[in-house]
Amino acid sequence: LRCSFEECSATAEWLLSRTEIRPLVGIVCGSGLGGLAEMLKDQMAFKYSDIPNFPQSTVHGHAGRLVFGKLKGKACVCMQGRFHLYEGYPIHKVTMPMRIFKLLGVETVILTNAAGGLNQDYKVGDIMIIKDHINMPGFAGNNPLAGPNDERFGVRFPSMSDAYDRELLQLAQGVGAELGFGDFLREGVYCVLGGPSFETIAECRMMNRLGADAVGMSTVHEVIVARHCGMRVFALSLITNQAVMDYDSQEKANHEEVLETGQLRAKQLERLVSNMVTHIEHNNNDA
Ligand SMILES: O=P(O)(O)O[C@@H]1C[C@H](O)[C@@H](CO)O1
């Protein structure tokens, strides 16, 4: 069976027998945002290539390590590198780490990504709190929950109208305001595409008209699987480039720019996430 309960349990048990850390918070680092994992104290890190049943990172800017440790005293596990559809992985493999998070005891997942800004008010370097998503591959039937459903993870038809936890969203706004990030903290809708080619001008215009504020190639699949198995979700996009919306523009999206902007804003993004983690309490999981 595809990423079966048994297979995920075996991986979780392998990890739990090698670390004493029992994480309640799971973090996923987006392109160029792996510095978050370096903030963890008392680290215990596993290379993806050493973990049974785990996929491998193939994208520049994704280190490929699962790091356990304490963030401001809270036990966390952090994916330093995620998997994308365009790497050629089947969608259930892309999202398998969410099920492993769940079986490790994680209650709250924080996901980050690099994204292109579609909203004309957004600037490069803005941090967008994701309040909702548009799942383009999902429209075509490419959903990570397609196939037989295992009730031990969750129900056949999970709701997604409550995908992004509103309390965590409020918390992020509060923490962001305290840190003085008001000028570049946004809240918006993330649209996922399969990649790896960046979008055409017509595609960007279309997504913007449909209500998307940012476009990327990840996160949504992980969110669906995390919600299916009852974890709370919070997600952030770093706007690393402006999507090209104009035929007169000479700009072209490129991965180097994505990684460079990651470096510029990484410290602030790390502070936002780590300050949030201090406020996340055990057992308030009402997912
Ligand atoms: O893992 P994320 O979503 O941050 O990665 C984005 C999307 C592509 O993988 C890459 C494009 O530059 O960055």
TrEMBL record:
**GO BP annotations, alphabetical order:** purine ribonucleoside salvage
**Could you tell me which InterPro entries the record lists for this protein?**
Nucleoside_phosphorylase_d (IPR000845), Nucleoside_phosphorylase_sf (IPR035994), Pur_Nuc_Pase_Ino/Guo-sp (IPR011270), Purine_phosphorylase (IPR011268)
Q: Which UniProt keywords apply?
A: Glycosyltransferase, Purine salvage, Signal, Transferase
The family database entries (SUPFAM superfamilies) matched by this protein are listed as: Purine and uridine phosphorylases
Q: Copy the pathway line from the protein's UniProt record.
A: Purine metabolism; purine nucleoside salvage
Q: Which gene encodes it?
A: PNP
Enzyme Commission number, as recorded: 2.4.2.1
Q: Which CDD domains match?
A: PNP-EcPNPII_like (cd09009)
Native species: Salmo trutta
Q: Which family does it belong to?
A: Belongs to the PNP/MTAP phosphorylase family.
Q: Which residues bind a purine D-ribonucleoside?
A: E199, N241
Q: Where is the Nucleoside phosphorylase domain?
A: 25-277
Primary role: The purine nucleoside phosphorylases catalyze the phosphorolytic breakdown of the N-glycosidic bond in the beta-(deoxy)ribonucleoside molecules, with the formation of the corresponding free purine bases and pentose-1-phosphate.
Q: Which Gene3D superfamilies match?
A: Nucleoside phosphorylase domain
Q: What is this protein called?
A: Purine nucleoside phosphorylase
Q: Which reaction does it catalyse?
A: inosine + phosphate = alpha-D-ribose 1-phosphate + hypoxanthine; 2'-deoxyguanosine + phosphate = 2-deoxy-alpha-D-ribose 1-phosphate + guanine; guanosine + phosphate = alpha-D-ribose 1-phosphate + guanine; 2'-deoxyinosine + phosphate = 2-deoxy-alpha-D-ribose 1-phosphate + hypoxanthine
Q: Where does phosphate bind?
A: S31, H62, R82, F83, H84, A114, S218
GO MF, one term, reads: purine-nucleoside phosphorylase activity
Database matches in Pfam families: PNP_UDP_1
This protein's GO CC annotations: cytoplasm
